[in-house]
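Hi support team,

I've been running sequence recovery on a batch of backbones for a student project. Most finish fine, but this one hangs at about 90% for roughly twenty minutes before it completes. I'm not sure whether the input is malformed or the queue is just slow. I've pasted the structure tokens below so you can try to reproduce it. Let me know if you need the job ID as well.

Thanks,
M.K.
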């Protein structure tokens, strides 16, 4: 059709096409710069029960101190991609109680949930790739039940080894410990968390990514620091739920377990009994699956180079409630 037009008309038509294409390309670039930030949040009342009747207007969200407009809101339950991260360096008594609780852990999962299993102590080992196969999960848990702890935990908790310890090993009074030579203890908690966060990054974005960590919270000689592990968790939008064993009341106040949960929007539990361990599995899966999801487009200016951490705060217009959410995200150029 252009060939039938006079030359000036053809030039004008081509120019129009170029300008239109250029404007369309600019529009695509502009739209791709608008990034939806998604913030899952759970809300509990003063009795610790989940609050499920809040509306979008009940929430206020700020990023780096600047109020943001919540444009997306839902509370629809979604399936989980869960990594069970098992510390096999806890005391034998605690380890046995945790192993005995595995049937309750499987019972806390839904048919649509997928699970992977890691164990860690002096080494980090992935024992089970992500699967929905309950039989495969059960067989792997049974395999873990046959494993023995390579070290014992420092005592103090309800499941701890009684008596004095040196470098995590029990000491028989009057007998010199085999570890009294000053051998450096090793427990790779932060490395295990870092690796779990990396593996969870492979899961679809329409699933909630969580780590269920069962540990005493001790870490020695990890290659990755706590900050590096938390950074990887936040980058991959992973929530951490922790079940603390072999911990004293004093240790719980500043526990690494609580820090991981608080930073990512999860929750931490310190069971005093076998039944409490099993209950906390259920509470963790319930909290992870039934979170409010708040979405917004950040009004803060993107960094020119590098990445910038943006702190997020979520508040609810209802007294007597406790809101849990990840502490922020990393904004890229």
């Amino acid at each position: 059709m252009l060939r039938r037009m006079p030359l000036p008309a053809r030039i004008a038509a081509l120019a129009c096409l170029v300008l239109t294409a250029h404007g369309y390309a600019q529009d695509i670039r502009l739209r791709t710069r608008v990034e939806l930030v998604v913030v899952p949040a759970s809300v509990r009342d003063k009795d610790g029960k989940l609050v499920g009747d809040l509306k979008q207007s009940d929430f206020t969200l700020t990023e780096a101190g600047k109020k943001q407009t919540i444009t997306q809101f839902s509370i629809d339950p979604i399936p989980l991609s869960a990594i069970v991260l098992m510390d096999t360096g806890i005391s034998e008594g605690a380890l046995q109680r945790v192993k005995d609780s595995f049937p309750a852990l499987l019972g806390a999962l839904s048919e649509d949930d997928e699970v992977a299993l890691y164990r860690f102590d002096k080494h980090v080992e992935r024992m089970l790739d992500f699967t929905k196969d309950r039989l495969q999960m059960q067989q792997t848990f049974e395999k873990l039940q046959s494993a023995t702890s390579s070290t014992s935990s420092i005592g103090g908790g309800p499941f701890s080894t009684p008596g004095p310890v040196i470098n995590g090993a029990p000491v028989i009074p009057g007998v010199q410990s085999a570890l009294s030579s000053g051998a450096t203890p090793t427990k790779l908690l932060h490395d295990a968390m870092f690796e779990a966060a990396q593996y969870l990054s492979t899961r679809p974005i329409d699933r909630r990514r969580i780590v269920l960590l069962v540990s005493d919270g001790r870490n020695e000689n990890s290659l990755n620091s706590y900050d590096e592990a938390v950074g990887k968790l936040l980058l991959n939008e992973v929530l951490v739920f922790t079940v603390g064993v072999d911990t004293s009341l004093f240790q719980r106040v500043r526990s690494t377990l609580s820090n991981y949960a608080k930073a990512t929007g999860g929750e931490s539990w310190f069971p005093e009994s076998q039944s409490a361990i099993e209950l906390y599995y259920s509470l963790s899966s319930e909290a992870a699956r039934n979170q409010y999801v708040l979405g917004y487009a950040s009004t803060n200016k993107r960094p020119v180079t590098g990445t910038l951490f943006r702190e997020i705060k979520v508040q609810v217009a209802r007294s007597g409630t406790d809101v849990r959410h990840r502490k922020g995200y990393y904004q890229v150029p």
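--
Follow-up from support: It reproduced on our side and the slowdown came from queue contention, not your input. The mean pLDDT is 83. No action needed from you.
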